[in-house]
Design brief:
This protein has helices at about 30-45, 65-75, 90-105, 115-120, 125-130, 135-150, 165-175, 180-185, 210-220, 235-250, 250-270, 275, 295-305, 310-320, and strands at about 15-20, 25, 55-60, 80-85, 110-115, 155-160, 190, 200, 280, 290. The protein has about 325 residues and is of the alpha/beta class. The radius of gyration is 20 Å and the shape is globular.
Length: about 325
């Protein structure tokens, strides 16, 4: 991660990582301190959490979600985890094992939901049945189940592991389209409202690389592979474009996103139709919705009526389209 001769900016001991956007190198101890400070800064600035909160962390078995759970516990917060088995072949099996091992080794409580066993469908089948990209069916399913688990479990806050790279990439895509609806809702905190739990993103000041380093230093095993169904997703292309800019101008990514939060997000406050529209109740599950059936129940209804689809079939068709 860093040249062997480099020294930590704080203690002058050998550094383990270089962070060009901070124009500094850090040893393991002071790198962890930096990460903690960045999370605390995000939490305090946006009033994300208090020590009295009952927190539910959405975990996938990947570095970001396990790291944010680890950081919050390390900072003294009470936090349980939630893992959803999406039925994406071996990928889901392996990711679930990483999440369970992390929780078991640290004596933490992990809630698990199996989409196929409990709701009668999986993501490959939902993608085929709805004729939409897999990430759409996945996002719809996860958002609904995250919200439901948080509310049913009496949790006051739902935490996700979205990092600076994730948020900058989403912002980049929304800005390319000047999608005011999405831009006005791209915030690190979404308050509880209309049957939705409070949602927060404590990692917005930390990058993917920094979260990978956190896991290495802390001895956290995580699933390295990207979801196979995300191949070709525009989000990955936006990340690559921003990474290329970052190579030429260190700190550009953080400036782009964090300055949006400071300077543009306040101007867009109240522009979201979703925040102002009156919501009804889903006739099937009772969740807030703008129509008779919520998006989750519509997806589940179509997917349950379809023959199960192997993940390999969806992937092969995706490759042919490209």
């Amino acid at each position: 991660m860093v040249a062997s001769a480099s020294k930590c900016r704080v203690c002058k001991e050998p550094a383990i990582i270089d962070l060009p956007r901070h124009n500094a190198n850090f040893c393991a101890e002071h790198f962890l301190e930096l990460c903690r400070r960045q999370v605390v800064k995000a939490i305090e600035k946006f009033d994300m959490l208090s020590k009295d909160d009952n927190i539910l962390v959405a975990v996938s078995g990947g570095k970001d979600s396990l790291a944010v759970w680890d950081i919050l516990v390390d900072l003294g917060y009470q936090a349980d985890g939630l893992y959803i088995g999406l039925g994406i072949g071996d990928y889901s099996d392996v990711s679930g094992e990483y999440a369970k091992s992390f929780a078991s080794e640290r004596g933490l409580n992990l809630i698990t939901i199996d989409l196929r066993a409990e709701y009668g469908y999986d993501i490959p089948t939902a993608a085929k049945a709805t004729r939409r990209v897999p990430c759409s069916a996945c996002g719809t399913s996860k958002r609904h189940l995250f919200d439901k688990a948080a509310l049913d479990g009496g949790y006051t806050v739902l935490v996700t592991g979205h990092n600076l790279d994730d948020e900058a990439a989403v912002l980049f895509g929304n800005t390319l389209r000047w999608d005011v609806e999405y831009l006005s809702r791209q915030l690190p905190v979404l308050p509880a409202r209309n049957g939705f739990p409070k949602k927060v993103k404590p990692l917005i000041r930390l990058t993917e690389r920094e979260m990978a380093a956190w896991c290495i230093v802390r001895g956290i095993d995580y699933l390295v592979d990207e979801c196979p169904m995300a191949v070709g997703n525009k989000h990955l292309a936006y990340k690559a474009a921003l990474n290329a800019i970052e190579q030429q101008s260190s700190g550009a990514k953080a400036s782009f996103y964090l300055n949006f939060l400071d300077n543009m997000a306040p101007l867009l406050a109240g522009r979201s139709a979703a925040a102002t529209d009156e919501l009804g109740t889903c006739t099937s599950c009772g969740a807030p919705t703008t129509s008779d059936l919520c998006a989750f129940c519509r997806t589940a209804e179509k997917a349950r009526a379809h023959e199960p689809v192997p993940v390999e079939l969806v992937l092969s068709r995706g490759r042919r389209r490209r």
